[in-house]
Amino acid sequence: xxxxxxxxxxxxxxxxxxxxxxxxxxxxxxxxxxxxxxxxxxxxxxxxxxxxxxxxxxxxxxxxxxxxxxxxxxxxxxxxxxxxxxxxxxxxxxxxxxxxxxxxxxxxxxxxxxxxxxxxxxxxxxxxxxxxxxxxxxxxxxxxxxxxxxxxxxxxxxxxxxxxxxxxxxxxxxxxxxxxxxxxxxxxxxxxxxxxxxxxxxxxxxxxxxxxxxxxxxxxxxxxxxxxxxxxxxxxxxxxxxxxxxxxxxxxxxxxxxxxxxxxxxxxxxxxxxxxxxxxxxxxxxxxxxxxxxxxxxxxxxxxxxxxxxxxxxxxxxxxxxxxxxxxxxxxxxxxxxx
Length: 339
Ligand code: BMA
Known about the structure:
The chain is mostly beta strands. The chain has helices at residues 274-277, 317-326, and strands at 28-29, 44-55, 58-67, 72-79, 86-87, 94-95, 107-115, 118-126, 130-137, 143-145, 154-159, 168-174, 185-190, 196-203, 215-218, 223-225, 228-239, 242-252, 260-263, 285-293, 298-305, 309-316.
């Protein structure tokens, strides 16, 4: 039983494996990683950077599937245990609120969150370049696409799991048309998930931790705890062989989440294993979802590895929060009010 209170439902059947003995980190990998392999379905070449939620006592996910034409698309997957997945070969078909087909040209890095009776999906979509697409489903069979949330160019749109002071809140990472060589995390608010404003900067790249020196972006849906919102986020460093993606965590103020309370100067997971260092894009760990059991504080993190596989890692809320607090470094500008 965790000591730090987590707000949320119990999840007794969360995928789980205890921490290996003598392991020093606060996030440990599933020993049978990766969960998916090359060419997992007829039309998909690789599945990675995907989002999973509990559903009717089992699990469902929205998966990024890069097709054999090289383009990223979204697919539904089903699982009884959160580990073994049946991925649908046909991509998600979106309709607008009038029922007309409204299909993205490409779609990648989905996040899924349940707010009231809907599962909202955000993803990176094409609108004269990358920006944040948003839609919802109730059953993972019919999908309604709403207006794009933001102007181009933007990526890593991540909704909070409830309204804060009466507004929906979304994190995002303004970017450019390509493999953006910069990037900080911002936040926007909305009354209706259509009109967005009150933009704030949450936190920037940099600090003494070089793993997050080039750009950062929000990962899974933030986890609500009595200490604040626990946010896992990816950080990127530019090496002589290209970008390396790791991930760390921060704690944001509960009522005013543009304020960073603590932020880890160290990464929590960095590419080390073959399935993270070798693949379509080597040296990438990219988390897009986290399941949490409010009773035990167990967390199961789904992350894409090497832009090729879906992988799984585990942690305890208490250990992550204590680590982040003990090793915190706020980067100059993280706590400004955005004006
Ligand atoms: C980013 C995104 C991610 C990807 C990463 C590494 O810009 O496109 O989907 O995992 O690059 O290629």
